[in-house]
Amino acid sequence: MNKRVSEESEAAFMEHLKVTPPVQLINMPRAYAVMQEQGLEAMVATTHKNLYYSSGHLPDSVYGDFQDLNSAAVLPANPKVEPTLVASDYDLAFLVTHPSWIKRLQMFGAKERSSATFLLEVLSKGIGIETALREPLRASYAATRATLEPDVNAAVARAVHDSVPSGQVRVAFDDLRVGYEVRRRLGDRIHVIDGLHHFRKARMVKTEPELALLRKAAAINDIAVHEAAAAASRGRPMLDMVNAYRMAMVRLGGTYLGRRGMMFGAGPDGGFVLDNDYAEAKILSKGDVVVFDCCGKYELYHCDTARTGVVEEPSARMSRLHEAVREALAAAEAKLRPGINTEELKAIAADILSRNGLSLELTTLAWHNVGLDIVEYAHPSERTKGWVVEADMVMNFEIFHRDPDVGGVHLEDSVHVTSAGLNYLSALPREVIVTGRA
Questions:
Q1: pLDDT grade, residue 1 (50/70/90)?
Q2: Are both 189 and 218 inside the same structural domain?
Q3: Are residues 36 and 173 both part of a single domain?
């Protein structure tokens, strides 16, 4: 690429930014409601998921874990007080090219760092080649100097103080270590609250930008499942199937979850073996049942789809088990709507499985929300007691029947719940995936 083409591309990128509003993932009305319900004056996000959810800020300096604490989003309970994004001068250029919806910035930066000296040279002194980035970066640099703090802890404390400047206040932190440091600096008027589940409760109901990311994640996962199935055939190690899945996820811009992205495995042990080395060494044989429990993410938003396959030819028993699981899943989803409790839906599926002769003691029946966590609950008690469904939740119902001879039969999908019905994020059919046929 020659210099002129490069300059034109950079300029076009900067012009595009001027007409493209920053994405706001967070559901602020719901966040305000959570804070009011919990008697909070503010919430502070510092973990990757909640920081991204609250601000959209996720540069590599944050995502790469270069430091234990890199940035923060301070969300006041008072809608009249602007939220604040705390970030490093190291990421000042990123905030120009990928601006947060949060306009109020609290920057920090140590003067002795080479990056700080470089910024000073090119922005304040005008040294170096002038590019399309320099002018807006210069404006942002100048606008943030008056409140610059030397380190991240001082910057978070200042942002909290500016958001709630006086009085006894309850502030929820998703990392209590940060909360205790803020209280050490601002005094006992700051009552530190564990905010992890308060953030999760706010996240349960998805916004349209979140749904767009979840749909993208599911579409990538669908392709990766197809490619994994194409690599599963008699005489080949299961590792070939796993590698096909992983390579597809990365090629399409996603990330596979854990070490391999595919939970469980194939054959009679496929319903319980989670040891990657053991499972991936297996050589597939005709009739082996394969559990495609495929988990990944796109831009931190998760995909979670399960299908059941078989190498070349399903047995009559396997087909019967699969049909019973598919019927139970469809019946529960048919009743899925805002206002119902997930325990009622679980009972519907359990009844169908029992009537088909499947042992409930050998079956996992688990509802979970999906989003920035792949298993997302507002509170741990919901794992066992269920919860009331709300519109714009994205939910999975896992039905995994384990058979000592067959292995596992597993189905699940991510479903967007609306008042008008269900929207399925995956387009994969629910038939048995037959692999390895000539």
A1: very low
A2: no
A3: yes
